[in-house]
Structure formats: C-alpha cells, structure tokens
Amino acid sequence: AALLRLSLVREATVHRIWPNRVDVRIAERQPAAFVPVSFGPMSRYALIDSAGVVLDPPAKAQFNLPVLQGVQKGDSQALRGQRVRRMQRMMRDIGTPGNGISQVDVTDLDNLKVRLMMKDQSFLLILGDHGFAPRLQNFFNHYQEIHNRIPWATTLDLRLEDRITAIGEAPSAQ
After folding, report:
1. pTM for the complete prediction?
2. What's the burial of 60, exposed, middle or buried (CB within 10 Å: 0-12/13-18/19+)?
C-alpha cells in the first residue's frame, strides 16, 4: 500500500517466499506529456500518463514530450486519461513527422490542434479527429507554397481533404 501511494508507481506486488525471501515487483507509470498546472497566479508543468494520473517530474530527469493543452483542473482522472490517449493515438498515426510537434490541444476531442515549428516559424495546425498523418503530410508537401503565398499565416485548418485554409487576416500594410 505504501508503494502504491508513490505517484510514479502504477502497480506494485510484494510476495513472501518462504523461508527468508521477499519478491517485490514494481511497474512504473510512463509519462506521456507535460500538462500546465496552476497554483493561483503561478503555474508550472507536471507530467501525465495515459491513465490521466498527474505526476511530479523527477528532479533530474529529462523528457522529450509535447505539452498537452485542454486538461482542466476539475477534470476527472478518466477524462484526463481519455484526452491523453487521444493525443497518443494521433501521435502514433502521425509517426516520425510528429517529432516536431511541441504542443497538442485536446480541448475538443473531435478537433485536435497541434503546434509545430517549421524553420523559424511556429504554426497552429487544426487536424480534426482522424486522418492525422495524411493531413500533416499535405501541409509538409505544400509548406513552401504556403510560405511564399501567405507568409503571415500561422494558423492553418487542414481538415478539408482538397485544401489548406489560413485562419485570420493578413496584417494591414503600413
């Protein structure tokens, strides 16, 4: 019971092997993303696993994980887990090209959004709820054209199969 109270322990079993041995097995929680955690006017980042358990990051560990937006303070563990698993499903679907994704917004489970750096520009890409890999590949295939035609565009809707839509307006000429 004491081992299970540790936030990084997912499962623990202790067996006594007669006459003088004890077998302890521990399954560690695997962090899936960072989540912002607010403390009044201040905030910091914690880790979250696929079950929706919020974990304190170990003191000297380093993780290459995205920031997960859309997990709210009052959400149940089951809802947090659902949001994490939706992000994980999307990341599996995307595969290696997803390594550049720094942030995933799962506020609306039917309309995922990701933050992606391309060269020196950050893009918010609206991906929807399926077909993540082809939509992201479509963006990569047309990136240079997008950059040349609408260099101001930083929010792009990729949900339609035959087009990429820029959200927002061009800055006014001065």
Report:
1. 0.86
2. exposed
